[in-house]
Amino acid sequence: MGAGINFNGTVYRSREDLCAQWANYFRSLYTGSDTPNFDGDFKEYVSSVVTDTFDNITLNPYVTVEPSFVQGCIKDLSKGKAGGVDGVSHEHLLAASGVIAPILANIYTRGCYVFDMSLKV
């Protein structure tokens, strides 16, 4: 695989290492922190909104998202843009698209829900 992706100062190139590092990255996003900047009240608010949202959705069994569609969407993203607060840029997604497109397609297919639009958050 190309030049690799830098996670915490180490460049990873193999599929297994990239998958493991992405898993660690996303796991750390959803792990609480004891730092003074961690906002426990906001975490509770977001958790309640997420719970309310998922309590008011139903699975749509007629939707299938194909990996080729996900790869096409990644390919069409604007290049040279800064990553978001998570630091993930288009170039990261493009470099890993062959590995993550099938995974994201599966998540999107299994996550195609119909929202109850009467829910107010």
Can you characterise this structure?
It is a single chain. This protein is mainly alpha-helical and 121 residues long. The protein has a domain of 59 residues. It is built from four helices and four strands. The strands form two sheets. A two-stranded antiparallel sheet has the order 1-2. Strands 3-4 form a two-stranded antiparallel sheet. A hairpin with a 2-residue loop joins strand 1 and strand 2. The C terminus is likely disordered.
Largest sheet: 2 strands, antiparallel
Ends: how far apart?
43 Å
| Rounded mean pLDDT score | 78
Gyration radius over CA: 17 Å
Number of strands: 4
Total helices: the number is 4
Main structural class: mainly alpha
Low-confidence stretches: 114-121
Which sequence of strands runs across the widest sheet? 1-2
Strand-residue fraction?
5-15%
The percentage helix is 40-55%
**SSE string:** EEHHEHHE
Shape: globular
Features:
4 strands; 50% helix; mainly alpha; globular; disordered C terminus; two-stranded antiparallel sheet; 121 residues
Briefly say what this structure is:
This protein is mainly alpha-helical and 121 residues long. It has helices at 15-29, 40-55, 67-75, 90-110; strands at residues 5-7, 10-12, 57-59, 113-115.
Task: Note the topology.
Layout: E1 5-7, E2 10-12, H1 15-29, H2 40-55, E3 57-59, H3 67-75, H4 90-110, E4 113-115
Antiparallel strand pairs: 1-2, 3-4
